[in-house]
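HOLO CASE FILE
Compound: phosphoric acid mono(formamide)ester
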Amino acid sequence: QKHLLGIEALRPDEITSLLDLADQYVDLNRRDVKHSDALTGLTQINMFFENSTRTQASFELAGKRLGADVMNMAMQASSIKKGETLIDTAMTLNAMHPDLLVVRHPHSGAVDLLAQKVNCAVLNAGDGKHEHPTQALLDALTIRRAKGRLHRLNIAICGDIAHSRVARSNLILLGKMENRVRLVGPPTLMPSQIGEFGVEVYEDMAEGLKDVDVVMMLRLQRERMDGGFIPSEREYYHRYGLDAAKLSHAKDDAIVMHPGPMNRGVEIDGEIADDINRSVIQEQVEMGVAVRMAAMDLLARNLREARANAPVEV
Ligand code: CP
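Model generated. Tokens follow.
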């Protein structure tokens, strides 16, 4: 692959290879062997047009641990604010010969469009409601390490599915790896084209969580609700917030996930989120660094190979 734009483009064996490499980076990070030269001599630019804590910090750490020169563009202070378009901004940065561009953008498809205009590797750090591929990969690694496998698991993705790129990328990935995925949430927060995914849909948490191995909670993404149905937080927590009573319907050893940022007392009870016997939320963050190291390592290998095989210009 030249870019990492979405899970859609990845084959199951490519997902497994990336997770295997990420596993090695988890091990190295834990043993404090944090520096390698996989990206030495390469320049990584992070362009975040939307807020981020986990994704931006982990991409920056990942690049630095692999030896890249990393630049974080302060998009709020850039010439985008003077009316420059996304593509003109990308072309301008492209002229400075970056090797890896990490892009988060509020519009679905914006990162794919940008990737067509530049001649470096592009990684999608989340585009609108479309995809968040590194989130799905880090979730997959977390599940695989906790459950010992990434197939034939019962997984419930719960909450605001309609506005979630995390849900979409996870649905695609977990389906490709032959898991049984269910969606649980209010009908008003289900996407209209849900049929295309061939998954079971539940309105009731007790039914939806029955005997699942993994409970994946989602954030209420109010910033994408543009005037549509916005539930009151009290009502939402009562019906869909994960608490001990609702979790009791899952398997006894079910793990609890949340991509963050989480709203305690809205999507999830604080005690459940902090329960080290059930919650793998902190592991998800740890896996995020390793998965992003693996993704950039693999793309850099492909980039170097393509450049080595490119015809010499005279
Ligand atoms: N999960 C996730 O994408 O978090 P951030 O928005 O903090 O990057």
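CASE NOTES: The chain has eleven helices and nine strands. The first strand starts at residue 43 and ends at 48.
CLOSED: yes
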